[in-house]
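Milestone M4 deliverable, item 7.
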Amino acid sequence: MKILVCISRVPDTEARVAFTAEGSAFDESGVTFIMNPYDEWYALVRALELKESLGGSVTVVHVGTAASDPIIRKALAIGADDAVRIDAEASSADFTARQLAAFAKSENYDLILCGKETIDYNGAEVPGMLAELLGLPFVSHAEKLEMEGQKFVLTRPVTGGTEVVEVEGPLVVSAAKGMAEQRIPNMRGIMMAKRKPLKVVPPVEVEEKVQFVHFELPPAKKEVKLIDPENMDELVRLLHEEAKVI
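Output delivered:
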């Protein structure tokens, strides 16, 4: 089975969030970047499990600059066979999906796995866009992925329960928590990753349809007001005059 896993570079969850003076871009100074957890822990690890049980190969692909190479090398250390970096800044979900689709079209993958979303923008847009651009079936937020004969069997949550879907490949899947368990690269994997191929390819020409104009932080939280439990009149007044339901 030939599997492609799309990975993203995101700020560490403990990173300080700030923007440039004009508020037009994220301030990367002093920020540690990691592989998007949904891509790493669930999509990549499940791809490796399928390879180990069914045979085949796992390729990781990333849209980004050379600053992302350490993230890609970690994916190789975890167990991916090879990697491709599309040499362009990932300026938007649309741009990223079009770059990934242009690469994947010529490779005939049986399965394309992405994390359900990135932890920076939380848009969950790229997997669905990628499936549409490739003309492939798409199953989102899958918590379980198995093979039965020639069909993929996926389980995902729906309101009030779970849904089981059978799909013939090739297809695109976005992986959610439960798909697999995190793997920590060992020393052998880290050493082998240095010798595995990381191919850099130029981006394709696409029309930039999205532009981020301005970022701003949410307003600071107000201090908590403590009300004497005997003073119900004051509590009622505050609920009427100051409390806001969002």
